[in-house]
Every structure is written in structure tokens, then in C-alpha cells.
Design brief:
Layout (H helix, E strand, L loop, with lengths): L14 H15 L6 E2 L11 H14 L15 H12 L10 E4 L2 H7 L10 E5 L4 H9 L3 E5 L18 E5 L11 H14 L2 E5 L25 E6 L1 H4 L7 E4 L8 H13 L5 H10 L2 H28 L3 E3 L5 E5 L5 H12 L1 E2 L1 E2 L10 E5 L4 H13 L3
Parallel strand pairs: 1-11, 3-4, 3-5, 5-6, 6-7
Antiparallel strand pairs: 2-8, 7-8, 9-10, 10-13, 12-13
The chain binds pyridoxal-5'-phosphate (PLP).
Pyridoxal-5'-phosphate (PLP) binds next to helix 4.
Length: 390
Amino acid sequence: MKLNGNFAKLKESYLFAEVASRAAAFAAKYPEAEIIKLGIGDVTLPICKAAVEAGKRAAEEMGNAETFRGYGPYEGYDFLREKIVEYYARRNVKLDLSEVFVSEGAKSDVSGILDLFDENAKVLVPDPVYPVYVDSNVMDGREIVYVGGNEKNGFLPLPSKDTRADIIYLCSPNNPTGAAYDRARLKAWVDKANELEAVILFDAAYEFFISDDNLPHSIYEIEGAEKCAVEICSLSKTAGFTGVRLGYMIIPKAIEGGKLNAMWLRRQSTKYNGASYIIQRMAEAVFTDEGMKQIKANVDAYKKNAALMSDTLKKLGIWHTGGINSPYIWLKCPGGDSWAFFDKLLNEAQIVGTPGAGFGLNGEGYFRLTAFNTFENTSKAMERLKKLKM
Ligand code: PLP
């Protein structure tokens, strides 16, 4: 068979499998141990009531001959897209309905959008970052260049005068570091992209976690972004939709005279048949005042955990970033090696986190903890951390 040879170039994705296997081996050896999981980036709180009720109503509609619906629009129902346009308007970002595309999640959007770009386009990816950007471009055979995040730049790398790329991925607030771009730094990327006639693929999956009022939630809060940036968003972490599935992508018509927007609609009408009606009704409810209040309560609960982790690390004198504007805490491993720190935390404190090495070369020496647990468990984990001999 003529298989896609690019798959052979993918690095073995053993990160979460290895984390799970080491944790399982420990649990098998010490069955009485109470392991606290602060590793996987999945939410733990249930879907908000407003969305659940909307989902029930929509399911009833589907079971009734008068209200049943079949295939929906490729780009999503207007009732939801209108809510998304209103959500952006609250930040003074003016969108046209035709610039909003609903999907079943951000992962498919950050990779699917690549269909619109040349296979020889050069891709720029910050390191460390969400591994999907790299792997989906490796599968397509594109050349990838990296910009390094580090302590000196606060894990918020900037373009230099030598930066050359056609596709630029940015993720803010970042997974795994939790670092978020301010306006000035984001403007540097927007200006660079416009200068290079490149596209920015801006992953804003964690925008709802931003606490600092001075930080932009959307790249369109930056002048000139409407000419170069596609924004990808998700209700996964915002509203606990990881198992429900709903995302949306903004493709401004000002990019390439509307060509990119038209190409995506053409692509979706070929490869996609629209997100579920029931889920879109649930998402619509998330954007109501009641829904917003309810999801904010959940996100605040995660942020309380993150604040506690950050406070504890500060007291212990451990360098870290993230937490304030994100569900992730990115800390410097005392001792350096991130897998050695993983083993130490597991063996001596029964805490499971994620070694930074799994997120790129610059991730080595660092470690990700997530706020997706109960306050009780997070507090217990932090008490154990305080007692740990580093
Ligand atoms: N983008 C980032 C940065 C993520 O961390 C994740 C999930 O962890 C996703 C996208 C995927 O989101 P979704 O569940 O909407 O596919």
C-alpha cells in the first residue's frame, strides 16, 4: 500500500501513556496509597445546569415530528453564531456572522485548517506547546521551525527580525505553560505576520481563564489582526464540554480578500456535516447570562486551586508561571530532570503531574500541574509538596 510516509517522522507520543503506566505501576505496588492526579488536562466539574436543560429540550425536539431537524448548516446554526458574535462584541470586537464557523472542537480546527495552506508553507511553532500543532504538520510533511519559550522571556517568545514563516501558531493562555501574551507582545506577532504575509493560527482555548483585565482574550483586540489571524476557540475547558464537543473558529473576511473564509466553507461542506443540533443548543445556553454565570463559577473553582498551587510554590521558592490566567501551573523542576521529578512526586508525595519534556525540547527541566481537581485534593497535594525534601 502507498501509505503516508510522513507518519514515520512522528515522534512516539508516549507522554500520557507513560504517565498513566508509571502511576498504575505505583498503585499496583501500593494499593493503599491515595494518589492525587494533577496531570491530565481534562475538566472534572459537571456541565452547567443551563446547558443541561437546553440539551434536554433539544433532545425532546428531535423526538417530535413537528420539531425534528436533520442535517444542519455546515458553518453552524445562526442561533449559536449570533451568540458568539455578541460574545465578541462585549470586547469591542466586531464580527460578521459569516466569519464564525462552529465545529465539534478546537483540535479538529487547528489541524483541519491546514487543508487551506500549501504543503510547502513553512510553519512556526512556539516550544513548549500543545503537541497537536507539530504532529498535524508533520503528517502533512511541512517544514517546522521553533521559537523557544524560556524563563527569560516568561515562556512568551517573540518574533525576531530574522523570523520567517508562512503559518504561525500561537496559544495564549498557553498549554502547558499557562503564560498569556499581553497586548504589546501580541502586537509584535501581528505586525510580523502582516509583514511576512503569513497567517496566525491563534488558539484561544483558555481565554475564559484570563483574570488580568489588561490581557487580551482575543487576538482581534489587536489592531491589524483581522488581516492575518484565524482564531480558534473551544467550550471544552470553558464550559466542561470535553466530552460533549463544541468549538468555533473565526476567519475574518479581511484575510486575503475573503478567500480564506470562502475556502474554509468549501472545505467544511466537503469534509464536515455540521455539529450536533442538541450540542449547539447546549452551547447557546452557555452564552446566556445564566450560563455565563454558571460556567464562571466552575472556572473560578479551578482558578482557586491554581492560586493555591502558585502560593505554595512561591512559599517553597520554586520558579513557576501560569495559574493566574490559566488552569495550568508550569514550574521549574528542583533537580532539573522532568521525568526524575515526576518519579519523585509520585513516589514520595503520591502526586501525578506531567513532565515538561513531553511538550517540546524547551519543556525539559519543567513540569505541568493542572487545576482540574477538587480544592480538597489540591490542598492535600500542596501539603504533601511542602513536606517533600527537594
Ligand atoms: N487547544 C489547546 C491549547 C488545548 O490544550 C486543547 C485541549 O487540551 C485543545 C485545543 C483541544 O480542545 P477541544 O477539546 O476543543 O478539541
